[in-house]
Predict the structure.
Amino acid sequence: MNIPVPEKPALADENTVEGLEAFTEWWFELGNYAVITGNSAPWIAETDPGCKNCSALVDSVNRSHADGGWVVGGSVTVETFDSKFRETTQGSVASFVTMSQDASAYYSSEGNLIEELPAREEQVVRQTFAEHNGERWIMLDFGSPNTGS
């Protein structure tokens, strides 16, 4: 497959809200790359190993591409980004992203359609937690925001 790994924006290493936004958008692009190509290594390199939702995505990618299967579509697009850019008590920075997702189709190695998922009709909000280690950002976790209820 001749799909290039998304290039990291220069701004994405800066310990600023703009840097965090550039990193977050690029991180989701790496996730899209993993889903389409089956190569999750670039995405994993930017992700903390303790991220449970991230591990679940890697497992899904591995299953989808097992024995020569493939995926068409399903790309996530970050529509909006918001962060107060304050460290949590754990040292991470929380952000909120509004995302949309394209329709997707999963195929077996024989070319048989396994599953089709429609595009998301409504945008969804996800919360991310990232940490800057003095040189670069690393994604610690993402998922549905904790509403406290």
